[in-house]
Amino acid sequence: MNIIFLIGFALMITGFWGMLTQKNMIKIILGLAIVETGVQLIMVAFGFIEGRTAPILDSAVPVKKAVEMIVDPVPQALVLTAIVIGVAVNALALTFIIKMYQKKKSLNITEYRDLKW
Amino acid sequence: MIKRLFSFVLLTGLGFVFYYALTNITASRELTGVSAEYAERGAAELGAANLVTAIVVTYRGLDTLGEVSVLFLAATGIAVLLRRKKGYVQARSEDKRGSSEILKTGTDFLVPIIVMFGVYIFMNGHLTPGGGFQGGAVVASAVMLQFLSNPSYRLNHTVFGFIESMSGFFYVSIGILGIVLAGGFLDNRILPLGNFGSILSAGAIPVIYTLIGLKVGTELAGILDNMRRDA
Amino acid sequence: MELQQGIFILMGVAMIVSSIVAMYVKDLVSSVIAVGVVSLFASILYLILQAPDVAMTEAAIGAGLSTLIFLYALKRTRDTEEEND
Q1: Which chains are adjacent to chain B, needing at least 3 Cβ pairs under 8 Å?
Q2: Which of A67, A107, B30, B96 sits at a 20 to 30 Å CA gap from B111?
Q3: Alpha carbon of B83: minimum distance to chain A alpha carbons (Å)
Q4: Where are the domains of chain B?
Q5: Which residues on chain B are in Cβ contact (under 8 Å) with A91?
Q6: Into how many domains does chain C fold?
Q7: B40 exposed, middle or buried (CB, 10 Å; 0-12, 13-18, 19+)?
Q8: In contact, B137 and B220? CB cutoff 8 Å
């Protein structure tokens, strides 16, 4: 299972690297999207248990034996909502970028120095 | 230069933290704590075959309500920031080339099927994988297809706004009914649990997830419509 | 188990390469598409990790709607003559 954690951590590092080094504001938000994917992957991997099946009860997974046969459903429920929140937050950030572009006609973050002394 | 150094140091530190975490993770072998409790009692208590749905709608229902409110606030923020002036008239869509006949016919054929699929997903959320968020996203994808194939398509904001506010209102109302008739806020046992595994079972879970699906679908469609340039 | 490990490694390499591509290329449209590819592979991984609910959400929202939202934002910040508001 360590491979999944490795993928998640690598995605997070790549995303943070992009957010810290890029100048283009849309690229920064793309980096944030990559970090989100990495975090969600790690959270789902924490709930995974080798050799078990999805948390849906049917004829193959009887109610009585559920505890021994399913993977952890709680991280899945948390990640489910995190994905929807993530896209809404990204859309809001992009809206701010669109408004800033309309004022200054530039996507370069180093040109926005109004709050810098 | 100093900024480069700073980000390099930060990333190296992060890498060390991750390395430490990676070497100390032990894969879990058993369900523990609250998860085991949900897996043991979830089906008998709530009657939902899909335990993820049971957790999202009922056990952690308050979280879901908060999440839907965050989505609503984000959609409202986008609409406020990107609103048009009163005198703005749509001038440029006329000189755009319209879409071809094949594209139009294909879209008209596909959109109802996609919407129907989305409704199927959120009505069967308590039995099969899927639910309000997935079904809502599929419904929004139908609107997305309409936007992509027909640039001059206008969203009917009155209908969408009405559906959105009504589903939010009824979602909270059902939650409050849970306090009055059953164990607590957003308790699904205000309706009979029914036969385990049939579509009309699990109490109020199908109703709540349908409302969530309608709300999420209309909100995502609204976000797409606001991000589009000439609407 | 061997097959599963192989699939994980292949997917992981594809995801990490496309995330680095997304941060490295100059063209913003390619960058957005690369992030969509990362989301798509992530949804396949969720399916292998026995999380079908999360896989559906990621495929519909992460790979579909989110990509289109980014492309709309690109289109609105690209034109030199923006409608004056």
Answers
A1: A, C
A2: B96
A3: 11
A4: 41-82+99-227
A5: 74, 78, 223, 227
A6: 1
A7: middle
A8: yes
Among C33, C46, B75, which Cα is nearest to A40's? C46
Confidence of residue C84 (pLDDT cuts 50, 70, 90): very low
What gap in Å lies between CA C42 and CA B120, rounded to an integer?
24
How far is residue B113 CA from its own chain's centroid?
19
The domain of C63 spans 26-76
In chain A the domains, ranked by start, together with CATH numbers, are 2-111 (1.10.287.3510)
* B-chain residue closest to C54, CA distance: B130
Judge: C22–A34 Cβ closer than 8 Å, yes or no.
yes
DSSP code string of B48-94: -SBHHHHIIIIITHHHHHHHHHHHHHHHHHHHHHTPPPTT----TTS
Q: Which two tokens stand for residue A46?
A: 């924490």
Task: Collect all residues of chain C within an 8 Å Cβ-Cβ radius of residue A107.
Answer: 77
Residue C40 within a domain = yes
| C63 in a structural domain | yes
